[in-house]
Amino acid sequence: MKCDKEMLTHWLNNQLTNAERQEFEAHLAECTACRQEVKEGTKVLVLMEQIQVPQPAAGMEARFLGMLDAYTQSVKKDSIWKNFNSRLQQLWSFQPKLQLAYSLVLLVIGVTVGYLFLNKSPKDNSKEQITMLSSKVEDMRQMMMLSLLENPSASQRLRAVSYTEEITNVNAQIIDALLRTLNEDPNVNVRLVTLEALIKYSDRSRVREELIRSIANQESPLVQSALADIMMKLQEKRSVEAFKKLLEHSSDSNPVKPKIEKTILQLSI
Amino acid sequence: MTELTDNELMLHVKAGDLDKMSLLFSQHHRSLYNFLYHMTHDKEASEDMVQNVFYRMLKYRHAYSGKGEFVTWMFHLARNVLKDGFKKKKRAGNYDELEEVSEKISGGILADEQLGKKQAQHQLYLALEKLNEQEREILVLNKLQELKYHQIAQVLNINEGAVKVRVHRAFNQLKTIYLKMEAHEM
Question: How much is the pLDDT for B123?
C-alpha cells in the first residue's frame, strides 16, 4: 500500500471502517514518513481538544426555562385564539348571502321605522310604509327559506324548516317545498321536523291529502310512527288504506308494526 | 422505564409536550455553545444564539421529521442562526478572553512545562482562527463535537464523500499553519 494522506487524516479522526483501519495500520508499521505525520497530527488534535472555551453564563438554563414557559403560554393562547377564530369563520360560513341580505333588510327596516316614528310623520302614511316594509321582510324570509331548503347541509335544511314558523302567509309555494322535503329529503330528522311543521297546516285539505299519500313513501319507522300519531290526532279515516298497504310491504321486524296495526284498528271503528 | 432517546424526546415535543425540550436543553446546550463559540469567539453572542436555536426548535417543531438525528438537526439550525443573526464583528478585540488567560499564565507561578503547554494551546487556537469559516466549522464538528462523517454530511447538507475531502483539506491546512507558527516561535 502506498502512503495515503487522506486515509491518515481519517485514521486520526477515528472515522475508518474496521477493514480500512487494519489496512492502514499495516502500512503504518512499515512507513516512517507516515508515522512522523501521525505524530504531528496527533499533537494538533490533542491541542485542539484542550482549547479552553469561556464558561457560558450560569443563568443560561434559567433563561431558557423562562423562554420555554413564555412560549408554552403563548402556544396555549394561540390555540384558544385559533379555536375562536375558526368558530367565527364557521359562524360566517353558516350565513349564506341570502341570510346576510335578510339581516341587512331587517336593519334598514328597523332604521326606517325608527326614523318614521321619531319624525312623527302623519300616522296613516307611516302605517302604510310599515306594512309595505313588513311585506318585504316576509318576501325575504320566504326566499331565504326556500333557498335554504336546497342546501346540501342537513342542519341548514332543518333551519329552513324552522323558518316557516316565522312566515305568516304560508303560500302554496312553501307548502310544496315542505311536502317535497317530507317525501324526498334523505335525512330522517329533516323529514320529521318537516312533518311537524306541516301539522299546522293540516286544516288545508291539500296538506291532509298529501300527508296521507306520503304514508306509502316513508320507509323510516320513525316517520311512519309520527304519521300514525298525526292521523290519530286528525282522526283521518282515509289514511287506513295507506297504512294497510304499508303493512303489506313492511317486514315483520318493523318495530312500529304493532303501532300501525293499532292505528288502523282505532281509525276503522 | 427506559430513558428516551433525543429523537424520541423531540418527537414528544413535536406532539405538544413542550416541557420535554428542557431535557434536550440540559443535555445539549453546552456542546451547542462550544460550537457557536468556536464560530464566533463571542461569549455573549454565543449564549444568545443558544437560546435562539432552542427557540427555533420549538417554533419549527412540526418540521422535525425524526428521520435524521436530533444533534444533526440542532447543528443545522445553529448554522442558520449563525448565517442570519451574527453580523460578523471584526475579529480584533475578540481575543480579550484568551489574552486574559495568557496574562494569568505569565503572571502566575506555573511550571515551565505547563506554560509551554498553554502556549501551544494558544498557538493552535490562533491557527484555527486563521482557517476560513468553512474549514474551521468542519473541524469543530468533527473533532470537538465528535460527529461521524455521515452526521456532518447531514448538518452541512452535502454528501459523505465531500465531507471526507473537506475534513482532510481543513486538517492539513490547520497542521501546516500550526507547524509554521511553532517553527517561527523557536
Answer: 87
Interatomic CA distance for residues B50 and A57, integer angstroms: 12
Q: Do B58 and A68 lie within an 8 Å CB cutoff? A: yes
CA dihedral sign, ordered B87, B91, B93, B96:
positive
User: In terms of DSSP H, where are the helices of chain A?
Assistant: 5-12, 18-30, 32-50, 60-93, 97-119, 123-148, 154-163, 172-184, 188-199, 205-215, 221-234, 239-249, 257-268
CA–CA distance, B64 with B10 (Å, rounded to integer): 8
pLDDT of residue B91: 44
Q: Where in chain B are the domains?
A: 6-85, 111-185
The shortest C-alpha distance from A81 to chain B (Å) reads 17
- In chain B, residues with a C-beta closer than 8 Å to the C-beta of A57 are 43, 47
Confidence of residue A120 (pLDDT cuts 50, 70, 90): low
AA identity, residue B17: D
pLDDT value of residue B103: 46
Mark yes or no for CB contact A51/B142 under 8 Å.
no
pLDDT band at A222 (very low <50, low <70, confident <90, very high): confident
Q: What is the pLDDT of residues A154-199, one digit of tens each?
A: 777 887 888 787 787 788 888 999 999 999 888 887 888 888 888 8
Which CATH fold topology does B111-185 show?
A: Arc Repressor Mutant, subunit A (1.10.10)
Domain ranges of chain A: 5-45, 212-269
Nearest to A45 among B29, B143, B165 (CB): B143
If contacts are CB pairs under 8 Å, which of residues 56-115 in chain A contact chain B? 56-57, 60-61, 63-65, 67-68, 71-72, 75
Distance between CA atoms of residues A233 and A193, nearest Å: 17
Which residue out of B168, B174, B179, B181 would a mutagenesis test of the A interface target, given it has the greatest number of A Cβ atoms within 10 Å? B168
Nearest to A141 by CA among A103, A175, A179: A103
- CB-CB under 8 Å, B171 with A12: yes
B152 → chain A, closest CA residue: A15
**Chain A residue numbers touching B179 (CB-CB < 8 A):** 40
Fold topology of B6-85: Rna Polymerase Sigma Factor; Chain: A (1.10.1740)
Question: Which residues are CB-neighbours of A13 under 8 A, at least 6 positions away?
Answer: A45, B142, B143, B167, B171
In angstroms, rounded to a whole number, what is the distance separating the alpha carbons of residues A254 and A248? 11
Is the model's pTM score more than 0.80? no
